[in-house]
Amino acid sequence: MPAIVWAVLGALSIVYLGDLRDSALPAVGVLLVWGAGVLALPRPKLPIRAIFIVALLVRVVLLASPPTLSDDLFRYVWEGTLTAHGGNPYLTAPAEPVLPALVHDAHRAMVNHPHIPSIYPPLAMGLFTALAAVWADPLPFKLVSGLADAGTAFVLARILTDRGHSTAGAWLYALLPLGAIESAGSGHLDPIAVLCLVLAIDAWDRRRTGVIWAGLGALLKLLPGVLFVALLRRPKRTWPEALVVLLLGLGATWPFLDAGPRLLEGFGTYAQHWSFNGSIYPLTELVLGAYARPLLVGVGALIVLYALRKRTDPAEVALFAGGAFVLLSPTVHPWYVAWAWVPALIVGVRAFTLLAALMPLAYVVLATIDPATGQWHESPLTRLAIYGPFFALLAYDALKRIGQPGPYPAPSA
Questions:
Q1: pLDDT in tens, 67-78
Q2: Angle at Cα 221 formed by Cα 218 and Cα 224, nearest 5°?
Q3: What is the pLDDT of residues 29-39, one digit of tens each?
Q4: Any long-range contacts for 323-327 (C-beta under 8 Å, 24+ apart)?
Q5: Which end of the chain is more exposed for a tag (fewer CB within 10 A), N or C?
């Protein structure tokens, strides 16, 4: 079981480095070597339940690593704490006047973009509030995210087994660093929503609708809404579950309606102005300038409509939606890759596994931050190193499939 040992050693090395922002280049090196070793070593030949145990082990180790690769977790804790005290994070940005009891909250001072109110859906805010009410600290957020991510590896294994495929893809997800570092290491929300996505696919494979799971994912992060719509269109009795999701969404939104137009302000700022680590977007912006964003949104919408109309496998629908998001978005944080990588492991598109292994290179930017101004410099060479091999492998596999009938090749070891 050398791949398991290698992954655990990789996780221990990350913990040993301590503050990963101060050790950005060594951390990137460790993550790349960790990923290369997992890809090169044979996949373990163990039962499905072992995938969850091993994935959890790797993530438990990373609980000891401080969340320094991203500031998002501190916003989660702050917004949950604010809501638990009766505030409204859609109405009150961290930089604005707050309740007297929270003026000196340490997590508030660590929130990035403090002038922007929350960008997260209301159900996510409910989760933040529940966790902050138990313990207003990053650890419970990291624990829940890591547990969800280990659950994704297990559900992936079950889906692949039910479809008659090898569990190699699930082992890759369990052992490669991307999922582990972004969940138990950084405590991101996305792994929880991705778990909802794979549970929806698993439910469909087991002749249930999966609508509830897709709806929950959409209420946490918007992207699973595509799968929610796809499953609603299937010839099954889905309206009762859709009604439950609708009522849950309304219930989660109700406490924040006093924010009025500001309810969407944070998300609007993110969608209109932020950009980082994009692949297609930077090239499109060079040619079209301000027209690049609306154009790529339109292209993404057409891809999603195609998937909804032409694809019957919910994993393929999720791959088209997640792939469009990752490849067309102006902002591609490393943890976003899971939205395409997870369904790609089910469908058998191996280029996204390569992208997941290379994506830690995006953290090289942390080594360029000016401590005085907080400004950073993103190199085009880094994007080329991340996306060049990915697009080359994607094109190679696509050319091999030209003229071959049938679905995507089955995932294999």
A1: 999 999 999 999
A2: 40
A3: 999 999 999 99
A4: 323/352, 324/299, 324/300, 325/223, 325/300, 326/279, 326/355, 327/279, 327/280
A5: C
Could you tell me if 59 and 75 are in contact, meaning their C-beta atoms sit under 8 angstroms apart?
A: no
CA distances, 380 to each of 244, 277, 279, 349, 385 (Å): 46, 9, 10, 26, 9
Residue spans per domain, the chain = 2-401
List all residues 6 or more positions away from 183 whose beta carbon is below 8 Å from its beta carbon.
Answer: 59, 142, 145, 146, 148, 149, 191
User: Which stretches of 295-401 are assigned E, i.e. beta strand?
Assistant: none
- Residue with structure tokens 């050319």? 399
Q: Is the pTM of this model over 0.90?
A: yes
Q: Are 105 and 133 in contact (CB under 8 A)?
A: no
Q: What is the rounded distance in angstroms from the CA atom of residue 182 to the CA atom of residue 334?
A: 8
Residue 331: φ, ψ to 5°: -115, 120
Sign of CA pseudo-dihedral 103, 109, 111, 112: positive
Whether the per-residue pLDDT at 122 is higher than 70: the answer is yes
Residues 78-106, mean pLDDT to the nearest whole number: 91
